[in-house]
Amino acid sequence: MQIYLSRPDITEKEIEAVCEVLRSPNLSLGPKLTEFEQVFASYIGTKRAVAVNSGTSGLFLCMLALGIEPGDEVITTPFTFIASATSVMMAGARPVFVDIDPVSLNIDPDNIEAGITEKTKAIVAVEVFGNPAGLDRLCEIAQKHNLAVIEDSCEALGSALNGKKVGTFGTMSVFGFYPNKQITTGEGGMILTNDDTLADTCVSLRNQGRDPHRLASTSPPPVCFASRSSGGSSKGGWLAHDRLGYNFRLSDINCALGIVQLSRIDQIKAKRRQVAKWYQEMLADEDRLIVPAEPDGCDISWFVFVVRLAPSVVDVSRLADGFTLAQRDRILHEMKRQNIQVSNYFPPVHLQPFMAGQFSYNQGDFPVTEAVSKSTIALPFHNNLTKDEVAIVCKTLRKVLDIN
Ligand SMILES: Cc1ncc(COP(=O)(O)O)c(C=O)c1O
Fold first, then answer.
1. How many helices (H) and strands (E) would you count in the chain?
2. Does residue 323 have a cis bond before it (omega within 30 degrees)?
3. Is 343 touching ligand 1 by the criterion CB < 6 Å?
């Protein structure tokens, strides 16, 4: 029996909602798009939401909307999924990494100011693994230096810091809906902001540079080729394009799935919290591991459950102590051999070969990130993981640690 790293949680309600769209003529740019954006904005508490086809395209559009361009620098963390940094590069700007806090694993606010230059335009703040710790201090620093904050909240739907929801801290924020996320649309993402100009720019950029207001006032979006070919004129309509744009649209099929998933977010959060609690309880006495906990003031919407091999992370000066990367990788290998899916979230972004090559980053540049990266084990984690499965994972992990 395989115990999966992650599984989507799809009920008959989601299936019915998707089928309903398939029975309608509105497969894209239809009512489910508007509804998904409205319910999402209302859940997070922002004025606007713009649905896109992935978290990555959402981050990229934020860069463009904020005017980030070649010559600019954007600060972010090297301990994240690659898109937090590549979205900066897609806009032609340079990602500037600052090292992380060894406990929260988020960008260490104390390191940010050293990374700011006259070229810095923004900070991409990631709530890694759903943890919002430090976000308030990061925003204070950004404000002091007049920098935009793009919250990469792709892992943190439903998290909050001191009662304030993740996604409301940044100038713009982005959520992702890949199937391992708290909610899924298959593929998809959502950009949030309180700024109408930024939101309208994203609406245009995601739809081939069409002007959303003019489009609305001229003709409805065509649903077949006949109306498509008649929709354009130099004055406006479907075939008038105001700027270089992209097709980053999210179909109504995906949106229908997202609406139902979002309506279940409290239940989903609770299920994931329970799984995290089982792991915390079952691994509480395991001093070879650092087990994640919820910091003060943080309401974590658990995305993954990542334990770390002790003690390398807590004391950076003792990096040579504790487990080695080779040992960690052997542990991952052995767990997988025993049909338990695990992963190494995340290898340091600055050491990805294309990144290190282009920006001359080296081993040792971000010691906390590097120490943490070589000690992580992401354990199976999803809504419907059972207590018995968690027990099997923990028992197997202890045995594997014994022989390594
Ligand atoms: C922190 C972070 N940023 C961005 C992304 C990119 O999202 P997507 O896969 O929807 O493009 C992810 C997805 O895993 C992520 O975890």
1. 15, 15
2. no
3. no
